[in-house]
Structures
1.
Amino acid sequence: MRRATFYLVLAVAILAVLLLAGCAGKQPERGRLSVSTAQPGPSTTETQQPFSSGWDLSPRRNDAGRVVIDIVPLSLSDDPWEFEVAFNTHSVNLGFDVAGVSVLRCDQGQEYAPTAWDGSSPSGHHRSGVLKFAALDHPTSSVEIVIRDVAEVPERVFHWDLLRRAESLPGDSAIRAAIP
């Protein structure tokens, strides 16, 4: 009887460790986004944050289709443009190529493929990393990250605007040229 109880307790402990290890995704390198326990629901939210280089760098969230996606722009003034991205779910496999489902769209509607995805591999329920794009070679007043076909959602759009404060644009002629 004691032996059976011991093995039962041991099996439960091993199962608990495996479950916790399976849900522990790679944490973001920059520490701005983290694994979320929020309940998914169809919404896109924005939170105002300080701006840098004339851009509103507020985090964006979309939680449609049982997958929460959070994106924070890290740099929109240097090359490459970098966006920290986190995917969180408890019911959908995240086994897709992040760079393959993502594009950057400028205010003229032109789309650009990412140059790199520096993040977790395609598996599990929690993924995060940095999505990188070549800096645009023309002025733009807004940019969008578009993520397609994740959790049966055809398109998720994350939008950022150039703020109209020229004094916040030191040394960035492409952005300065976009201000009327």
2.
Amino acid sequence: MSPKAGEVALVGWTNVGKSTLLNRLVGEKLAAVAQRPQTTRHRIMGVLTLPERGQIVFVDTPGFHRPRERMNRAMVDAARRTLTAVDLAILVVDAEKGAGAGDAEVAKAIASSGVACSPNGSGSADTLSTFIE
């Protein structure tokens, strides 16, 4: 069996735990974690190597939000561009708060990008349409 690799974007509304998830998945602190929104301003990549199976490149993205400033628009644009460059997107939602209007916006962005999606890393892409409603 030949080793394989794939890229997985961690996307969601701002401050839902994408960076925390990246750090846990790769077993190292690669991304800064803070209570303050928009801590992640650029894409951050972390690699998980699965011996005899391949590698997963996780891409932590800036959080989606309603930008007012040029820098914030660039952050949201970076997150949107990431969706066109990966094999799978994981829609990360704050488990304590549950899904909200912002999460539905992100789900629509994922759906329109055409990338396969798994809400919170479980389920199938079919569950994304029910998430949007």
3.
Amino acid sequence: MRLIGIAVVLSLCLFLSPLAQAQPVTLPLIAVLDPGLASNPSVGTAYFKEALARLGWVEGRTVRFETRYGEYQPDRTSAMAKELVALKPDVLYTSSDGPVRAAMRGAKAGDLPVEQPTKVDLTINLKAAKTLGLTVPQSVLVRAGEIIQ
């Protein structure tokens, strides 16, 4: 009788094992909007991905990236921003300046000024960081121009 019980347990394990393995794992999605060219990503985008990798967030293993490039064209950047938002990412990152952020908010490209950035504005989303299991050091928080709770 005991052997029958063991045989039933083993049979169930063999039957259920492929089912357990078939369940897809959904990795967190980070959407990246780079205002530049795919052939030459901005330093900010490259640094962001490298910093995450150093923290253990490896593309394809622990996180998914969807990156879009604006090719320095405001209309394209706005379209790419809308495309990324439609993916409902866990985090949306851009290393861009004010006009690109305005395009992301729906401003018309013709209304955007052509300007050179004069400063870098750091915005930190603590809710997104918490979702990813990241702790933002106080030394970084004090440098942020905006902190999203």
